[in-house]
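Can't attach files on this board, so I'm pasting raw text. These are the components:
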Amino acid sequence: MKISFKWLNDHIDLSDYKSRPGELAQLLTASGLEVENIEDPGEAFKHVVVGQIMKLEKHPNADRLTVCQVDAGEGSLRQIVCGAKNHKQGDKVVVTLPGAVLPGNFAIKKSKIRDVESLGMLASESELGLKKESEGIMILPPDAPVGEPFARYYGLDDVTFEINVTPNRADCLSHLGVARELATLLDRPLKTKKPEVKVSSGLSTKQTIGLEVKDEKLCSRYAGRLVRSVKVGPSPEWLKRRLETVGLNSINNVVDVTNFIMVDRGQPLHAFDLKTLAGPKIIVAPAEANEKFKTLDGTDIVLKGDELTIRDAEKAVCIAGVIGGVNSGVTEATTDLFIESAHFAMDSVRRTSRRHGLQTDSAYRFSRGTDESGVVDALEHAVSLIQQVAGGEVAADWWDLRAPVVEREPIRVSTEFVGQKLGLKVDPEDLKKWLHRLNCQVEVLEKGVFSVRPPAYRVDLEQDVDFVEEYGRLNGYNHIPENLPVVGGEPLAHDKQYLFEQRMAELARISGMLQCVNYGFLSGQYQEETLGSAEAYKAAGLDMDSKPVRIKNALSSDLDTMRVSLVPGLLKNLLHNVRHGSEFGRFFEIGQIFGHGDDGYEQKPRMGVVAWGLRRDLWTQPKSQSQIFFDLKGRVQLMLDKLLIQAVQWKEWVNPPSLLHPAQAAILVCEGRPVGYVATIHPQWSVAQKIRVPVAVGELDLVALGRGQPRSVKFKPVSKFPAVERDLALVLPKDIRAQDVAVEIKKAGGALLQSIEVFDVFEGGEIPESHRSVAYRMVFQDSAGTLTDDQMAKLHQHIVSSVSKKFPLKVR
Amino acid sequence: MVPSSLIENLNERLTQALNQLQGARNVQELYDVKVAFAGKNGFLSEMMREMGKLPKEQKPVFGKEVNRVKTQFEQKYEAREAELRQQELAEKVQRERIDVSLPGPKVISGSKHPIYLVMDEVLSILSRLGYAVRTGPQIEKDWYNFEALNIPPDHPSRDMQDTFYIDDHHVLRTHTSPVQIHALLADKPPLRVVAPGAVFRCDSDISHSPNFHQIEGLLVDHKVSMADLRGTVSYLARELFGSSVKVRFRPSFFPFTEPSAEFDCTCPVCGGKGCSMCKQSGWIEIGGSGLVNPRVFEAVKMDPKVWQGFAFGFGVERMAIIKYGIDDIRLFYENDVRFLKQFDL
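---
Top answer:
C-alpha cells for the assembled complex are below.
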C-alpha cells in the first residue's frame, strides 16, 4: 500500500521528518509496518530550480545558439548557452545546475560551448522526463518563484512509502491508520479536523429513500446520506494529484471523493446515482440464486445467491463491499447521490470477491476488517468533501442502522507474563505507558496487572499474547536478549523413513550419481504420454495411480498434475542436458509420488535413476550401446549390496510399459518382492526426442526397500587359508540366462564356493550359431584348510557334470 | 714342460675372449662368446682335447692352466653379464617412459543437490540441539495447513499464501508448519522437532518457484520466551554462516505465532557493509519465527496455560542462494549437469 508523506501530515505533524523520510521508514519497519520502498520523485530533480532569463544575446560564434544570463535565485546571474528557439528575455525557465543528473543518467556539468562558458542547462520537458517528446525548453508561468527547487514547484516533492501491511493490521490500511501508528510511536497528538457540511434543512435522507438491512450478521452497520444537485465533473488538481500519488486513477469528482476517503480513513464508500434506484427503499440482502449482474467495470457475473448485495425494489445495484453495478453508478449525468458507508463481514466479502475474481480496493479493506465505529465519521467527511468539489445540497439527516454493539471483553495483561514471554524484565509503568499510547483503556487490577480494552479499530488485539507482541515491538525487538534454551526430557528419535531416504541419497552418491530435485507436479499429458500404461508398472512393484491427482488451480497445463513417478522429471532433466551439450550423465532423485488413497490422498517415497551416454576415453571403450543398461544396473546393485539385501534377482520384464525397451528391461526382485526396475529406454522414445546417446532409466520403491533398514553387519570370520580361483567357460544356447547357470553352479559348488561372477561373454567366431560363450570366475575357499588340487579337480568335475545335466552346454 | 706356445695361445685366447666379453653389447652376444670359448664345442673344450695329446706329466700342469683360464673367463662372464643385464634393465625402463600428463581413468563421483546440502547442514546443526526430524504429507488437509494453525476459512491471512487446491478439503501444503500440528498430536511434550521438505505456492517468477523447500523448527516446553527463540536462531545463523554473523528480529505477523518476528542476519557476503546480495542494507532476510500462538495449542487440545513454544522456519533455496551466491532460483530445478557438478563435494 502506498502512503504519501504529505498526506500523513493531514493527520499528524511530521514536518521535522520532511528531510529524513528514511528515518520514518525505519521507525515503521522496526515496529512492524514494513516499508518496502521509499519513492522520492524529488531525488531526480536535485540541483534543478526555477530561474528567469534576465538577458538574452546571440552566441558570438554560433548562429543557432543563444547566451542567457539567468537568475536562479543565487544572488548573481549565471551564464548558460542554450540551443532552443522558444525562449525570450524575461521567461521563467527550468535551470539544471552542474551536479544535476537528469533521467537517462544525463549529468549536467560546467562546460564551454564554442568558447563560451555555460554553467548549466535550460531544460525541456523531455529532458526532465516529464514528457516523451517536447519542442523547445520548458517555459514556466510568470508567477513561478525564482530559485525554488523545481520538484517542489512542480509538486513532485512528495515522498511515498510502499508499506507491506500484514493481514492483522487492517487498521493501517489508510493514512489515518498509519498516522495513528506514528502517533503511538512518536508520542504525538493526531490532528483532528471536524468536517464542514452545509446542510439543507428541507432535504431528508430518510424521507426520500427507505432502508432495510436483512442480514445483520453480514452487515452490522449501514449508513447513508443524500446529496442533491451535484455537478459531476473532473476533480480539482489537488485531488487528482493525491490519488495519483497513491496509484489511483482520477475518474470524476464524486468517485474520487469516495476513493479519497477510503485511502484517507480506511472506510470504503459507495456512491449511487439516486435516480437509477427503484424505490421506495434500499435493501441489504443476499443475492437471488443465479442472479445476473454487470459490474461498474463491465464484467458480467452470475451470483450464486449467498453474496450480500445492496438492492433496490427490483434488482441488485451493488455487491456489498466489493463493487457497484453499472446500473446505478455515478455518471456525468448524475445529479443526486446516495452515499453509502457501511460495515460488512470480512469473511463474506472475501469469499464473494475471490469467488468472482473481483479484487477491488474496497473488498481488500473489508475482507481484512474495517472499523465499524468509524462508519458515520467517514460518511460525514465524504459528503463534506463532495460538497466542496462538486457542490450540491446535503440532507440534514442520514440513515445509520446498526446491530447491537457487542462490547469486547477486557483482556487481563500481566507485566510478569509479558516479561516471561519476551525474556525481558518489564517495568509495569512502561507497559502501562505503551498501552495508553495505543489508545487502550487501562485499569489496574493489582500491582503490574492490567485490565485492557483496546480501541475499536484494533480488531487484532484479542488475547494477552497480543499485548506481549505490542509491548515487544514498541519497546523494540532489539532489546530481546539471546538465550540458548535447555529442554528437559530425552530427545526424540529422527523419523525413520527420512533417515532411510538420506541413506539412499548417500548410496546413490557413492555409486556416482548426481542428485536432482524436480517439482512434485508436472504436465499431466506429458506424464501420461511418457510413462505409458500405469497398470504395467505393477509388475515391477510400483503402484501408479492411473488417474493422477490434479491441481484445481494450476499455474498452467505444464504444472497441473501430481507426479506418479520420478522418471518423467528425470527424462526432462536428461533432455535439457543433452540439448545443452552434456552427452553423459548419471542422475538420481529421491522424492515423493502421489496418488489417491484410502484417506483421500497418499504419497510414497521413490528413487528414480537415469543414465545416458557411455564414456569413451583413453582407457574405456564401450562394448555396445546396451551397456547403458548394465551401467545403471551396476550402480543400483551397489546400493543394494550396501543395504545388505541378500536375495537380489534381476528378472526379465516381459511386456514392459511402452516407455521401456521390450527386450532390455529388468524387474528388480529383492527378497522375493518386486521393488522396482531398471531398463533401457525404448528406441522410439529416443527417436521422438532426437536423442542419439543410449539411455537407461529405473525407479525404486523406497518403502519396500526400506523394510528392516538399517541392517547391521554380521561379522564373518576371515579364512586363514588361501582362496583358489577357477575359470569356467561354457558354450550355451543364447536363451539360457547366465544367472540361471550361475545359480546351478552355486548349488553344485556348495559352501566352498565363495563367489561367482561372469567375466566374459563371447559370440561368433568358433561359437555355433545362436549360442554364446559365458565365462564364469569362481572363488573357492575352505575355512578348515587349504584346498588341494585333487579336491579342486573333483569339485570342478562335479560342477561341470551338475550344470551339464541341467543345461545343454559344452565346456570350452 | 708344456710347450710355451700352448700356454701362450691359452693366455692369448683368454685375453681375446675377455676383450670379447667386454665388447659384447648384450646378453646374447655375451652368450655367443661364452659358447665359442667355454661351450661344449668351444675353445676350452678343444684345449681339453689337446691336453689328451700331451705327455702324462704335462697333463696336470696344462689342466691347471686351462682351469685357471676357465675360472677367469667365467668370473669375467658373470660380472659382465650382471653389468649387461643391469644396462638392459636401465634401457628397458627408459623405453617404458610414459607421458605422466595423460589423465587417469575417470572416477566419477556423485553429488548432493544444493537444496539437500543446505537442508542436511541445518538438520545436523539442529540435531546437535536435540531436534528430531519429522515429516508430513505434501498433499495436506486444509485443517492441518490452515485451520489448526489459526488460519480460519475466508480469513485474510489466507491471502499471505497463494494456495494450490486439490479439492475443497485438500491443498498442496503451503509451508512446513502443518508438520508442527502432526508433531504436537503425535509426540509427547516437551519436544524439539525439525521439519524439512517441499512446499508449494502458486507464484512463479525469477525469485519465486511454485515448488520450493522449507525447514521449520518447533520447541515446546513449559516456559519458552522470545529470548530462547532469538538465542536459537542466532546459534543456527552463526553455525551456518560464520561466527561473526549477528541476528536481528523485526516484528511481523504469522497467524500461528504471537508474538511474531522475521529474522535477518548480517549479510554473510559483505559482513554487513552493504553489497548487491543484501541490497546495500547490510542485512539479509532469513525467515519467520515467533512464539506458538495459544490458539494452536487449543487446536490440538493442549493447554496453553501449561505449554509454551517457539517455531521458526525459512526457505532452503534462499539459504542456498545466500550461501553459494546462486543468482536464479530456477537453476535449482533445471538440474543442469554444469550446475550440479559444482556441488560435487
